Amino acid sequence: MKRITTIIMFVMTLGxxxxxxxxxxPGITENEILIGNVQDLSGPMKxxxxxxxxxxxxxFDHVNNNGGVHGRKIRMLVEDAQYNPQKTVVAVKKxxxxxxxxxxxxxxxxxxxxxxxxxLAESEIPLIAPATQSGTMSDMSRPAAEYIFHTDTGYDIQSxxxxxxxxxxxxxxxxxxxxxxxxxxxxxxxxxxESEAEMGITVQKESFQRGATDFAGQVMNLMKGGCTHxxxxxxVKEPIIIMKTASAMGFxxxxxxxxxxxxxxxxxxxxxxGEGFIAANFAQLWNSDYDVPKLYRELCERAEVPEAMMxxxxxxxxSTAIVLVEGLKRxxxxxxxxxLIRGMETFNNWDGAGTQPLTYNRNDHAGxxxxxxxxxxxxxxxxxxxxxx
Length: 389
What we know:
The protein contains 13 helices and 14 strands. The chain is an alpha/beta fold. It has 2 domains: 12-153 and 288-367, Rossmann fold (3-Layer(aba) Sandwich); 155-281, 3-Layer(aba) Sandwich (Rossmann fold). Strand 1 (32-39), helix 2 and strand 2 (73-80) form a beta-alpha-beta unit. Helix 2 crosses helix 12 (312-330), helix 6 crosses helix 7 (183-199) and helix 12 packs across helix 13 (337-344).
């Protein structure tokens, strides 16, 4: 009888170890946390696809060199999906099923991030800081919303703020928007239409296909429409080409941009055509005197990061990595995907990532709802407002 009791206790002990130990969670070992990222490494945004994870790894290396998270070092696998929703689905399936990552992180692009919702729900795997500022990411009525934690102010909110600002500059402003014709642009137009209804105005809308490089037709239409203020909903190359095209045509409205256009390379490449360009930004400037930007620059110097790489997108990878690490800390010493979700939902006005303060709970995964505006003045990006809602 004693022998049987001993065997039963041994089996129960093994069961408990299997349920609570590191082996019970995909991507977790005694020494490592494996996370999965999907970027564009060879498509239309390949430059950003290399810069963003480089910024993330800058912070992960810093954490790993200081003991990791509860003794575990973070390792990030990056898959190339070429900014393509279908390829993103394949990449995410690989990360979840073959690589057995603990969680997903970033996943660049609105349409690609939207495309993986069924996989999140099926695997019950969290996606922290999708690399898109679409407000759809934090819409809790959408499928798999409980697994997504957004760090950025939605495009719909941003477009409303920019329209408000334009009308504050000139009550008679004639506003146009040139937008990428996909999920990104759809979320921008949602905010535009809300402002139209609220203000009783009409905004001229001109679309372009993802990856476009010729904007002469759209610029000509905005010029014919008499637009005095034009919002650009693109990434980096689009505002550069659009403003140079407008300058060549003798068209000089007040150009404004949704936050993906807030990159210092826009000022460098657009030259005189970009002078005065105003863009929304959801975070502190990377070269400002706040604590996190200072740490960022210190680590860049220590790691000998090329100056050309430093900037908004590299800093974006860095700051969102801070958010993920904080969530991993809150998941505890024996993390599971559910514990990561619950840990993220304890953020309450948390301001440790060099962004605006972030708040999450079970009913709200938006994180942030404000932006600051940054303007190119004498070729230099300059903050011109406090946080705006």
